Structure prediction request, 171 residues.
Amino acid sequence: MAKDAISVIMERRSVRKYVDKPVPDEDLKTILEAGRQAPSAANRQPWHFVVVRDPERRKQVAEACSNQTWMADAGVIIAGIGKPAVSEKWYPVDVGIAMQNMILAATALGYGTCWIGAFDEQKVAQLLGVPDDCKVVALTPVGAPAEQPAARPRQSLSEFASAERYGDEFA
Ligand SMILES: Cc1cc2nc3c(=O)[nH]c(=O)nc-3n(C[C@H](O)[C@H](O)[C@H](O)COP(=O)(O)O)c2cc1C
Prediction:
């Protein structure tokens, strides 16, 4: 049975070690579908996602991501591309929401992922044939995890949230 949403959210970690094996198409389709169902401002869907499976291209993309070479060991790298011409104000938010939907779906299916924000946009765009009027927002590897990282620290609830007015303790 699929894990419930809260468990998936709590269990997700940034995974930076992978076993290099393919992600079956069926799982990839589920992951992409999770992104496709994401909300977007005025339902404009100002996004496109490039799924990189080819090992050599994965390597090149990983190098263009500040040489985070471990990314290339994941069976797939997904690049989230925004379309400013479709939604100039909201494309980064909308692509982010869709990416996170995909990351959570991948987690539910047992895959590791890691948000990648450190990349040379020109290099990634060139490698993936991204049109000039589009923006690379973020990437993630998706693959069989070869590590189970511990939870990273988070702010306390009182730092993170207030009741009624900013700074009033949530209790
Ligand atoms: C927008 C964004 C960009 C990130 N870029 C990178 C990155 O380039 N490389 C990396 O290893 N982790 C990256 N991370 C992962 C964060 O370091 C990680 O989410 C954070 O340390 C919390 O750990 P956790 O994801 O395991 O909870 C990024 C995360 C976000 C949200």
Observations:
- Residues 91-108 form the longest helix (18 residues).
- Helices lie at 5-11, 25-36, 55-64, 91-108, 121-128, 157-160.
